[in-house]
Amino acid sequence: MEVASGSTWPTLPAVPSPATLPVVASGLAAELAYAFGGPFHFLLPDAFTANLVAMQDALTKAGVDGFVYYAKKANKAAVFAERSAAGGAGVDVASAAELREALGHGVRGEHLMVTGPAKSPVLLRLALAHRATIAVDALDELDQVISLALTGGARPARVLLRALPATQQHSRFGMSESELTTALKRCVEARDAIRMEGFSFHLSGYALQPRANLAARLIDLCADARSHGLEAGRISIGGGLPISYTDAESWHTFLATQSPAHYHGGKSFRTTDFYPYHSPLAGADALTALLATQPVNTHSPLANRLKDAGIELLLEPGRALLDQAGATVFTIQGVKDRDGYQIVTVDGTSLSLSEQWFNSEYLPDPQLIPRDPAATTGLYPASVGAASCLESDMLTWRKVAFPQPPQVGDLLLYPNTAGYQMDSNESPFHDLPLPPKVVVDRTDRIRPRWRLDRHFT
Questions:
Q1: Which residues of 311-349 are buried (b: 16+ CB within 10 A; e: fewer)?
Q2: H or E segment at 257?
Q3: Contact 91/68 with Cβ under 8 angstroms?
Q4: How far apart, in Å, are the Cα atoms of 346 and each of 37, 264, 335?
Q5: 275: nearest Cα among 83, 103, 168, 421
Q6: On the CB side of 310, how many CA atoms lie within 13 Å of its CA?
Q7: Coil, strand or helix: which one is 156?
Q8: What pTM value is reported for the model?
Q9: What 8-state DSSP symbol labels residue 211?
Q10: How is 414-445 classified by DSSP, letter by letter?
């Protein structure tokens, strides 16, 4: 169903991924879709490694002593834990299963950061046994760690105290100023069981100034803790480094022109609920800018504050390490006409594109991979529905302007989905199998090399 060439449709082209091109051009994507008989994800671990090296280089160039932990929750694939270990990074885990997975794929116990609320005794015992750092979220959890360390007969527990951001008092995570004061006293009293290494925080959003401000506050807290004889030489600022899925002009044009008329059923979204799909500073560049940011009421950038205080900076990025590290492929199994557009149904569900979890939409344009590249070209708007009987199960509510008419058997490739999209919300709904993960190790060949990720389900 072609529309008039003069019609305009909001588009959001993804930043090109050179490593994705040979996966499509070689015919590998089509062969894998046939082999698996359903949707699949392909992973590009070389992109992960490049992102990690860039962050480590940013710390080095700023003269900051730092350490990167990959936030494992962003993607369950084993290959990223393997690349973390190989690259001299750690892994941030929040469950006993994640901790075991990280250990099983080569990450040293002392390079694990254990986060999350109300950690189970099993998780805490594993963390103590393997010398992992524990980000303590509450006073009762601190008491539990102290008790386990005293009764376990092991070396002192390595802990950070997680601070509740003053700007996010509604958060259920972290300790208030008064609770931190109490926690410090307990760490002093139990210094035989506790090695208090510093403080941590997590902030919502992606603004750099609030992160610099809170990091400076944690530096001051470390000074206070040291005055009481505690080690307090590290601070963790969590994740929150943005990535850019598209260019600035495309993003701002999209926000200015999109409206309910451009979505199936007149669906409307609040633009404030969209992920910021463009960021002028992303990944390692955002880290560099953060280190150069001057916290309020100070006279030097954050990097200088860290160096002067002798503080090690810890990072727990997820999405920022996974930029361009994978994509998701579906096969079209049905096409029907609507008034001026089509509804395409694919062989999977929106649970593999987890932005729906946030009452939002994964906005980068999917790429149509036609079986017949010589088909008629034009402007063919279509929304993308899932293979379930739920009215709300839409991969893409937006009417995407495809350059060819989508047909049964064509593929749709959703770009750059490794960061949180692939598996944070997945479910075998309707008894549909979870999409397998394929690791593409070599894309510099005419025929890319691939294998199944070891953590395949």
A1: bbbbbbbbbbbbbbbbbbbbbbeebeeeeebbbbbbbbb
A2: helix 248-257
A3: no
A4: 12, 16, 9
A5: 421
A6: 6
A7: coil
A8: 0.95
A9: H
A10: E-S-TTTTTTTT---GGGPPPPPEEEEEE-SS
140, 181 in Cβ contact below 8 A?
A: no
- Pull the structure tokens for residue 218: 């944690």
CA of 114: how far to CAs of 82, 136, 315, in Å?
Answer: 18, 9, 13
Single-letter residue type at 243: I
The distance of Cα 363 from the centroid of its chain, to the nearest Å, equals: 16
Q: Is the pLDDT of residue 357 over 90?
A: no
Mark out the alpha helices in 293-426 (DSSP H runs): 302-309
Q: Does the structure show a pLDDT above 90 at 428?
A: no
Element (H, E) at 331: strand 326-337
| Tokens (6 digits) for 96 | 């006993």
| CA 407 distance to own-chain centroid | 32
Residue 208 dihedral angles phi and psi, to the nearest 5°: -85, -40
- Here the tokens at position 227 are 């005055």
DSSP state of 63: T
Residue type, 304: N
Q: What is the mean pLDDT of the chain?
A: 93
**CB atoms < 10 A from the CB of 300, how many?**
12
- State how far Cα 44 lies from the chain centre: 15
Residue 78 tokens, joined = 């084993």
CB 40 within 8 A of CB 33: yes
Q: Give residue 362's pLDDT band: very low, low, confident or very high (50, 70, 90).
A: very high
Domains located in the chain, CATH noted: 21-44+324-452 (2.40.37.10), 46-244+279-321 (3.20.20.10)
**Rounded to whole angstroms, how far apart are CA atoms 416 and 225?**
42
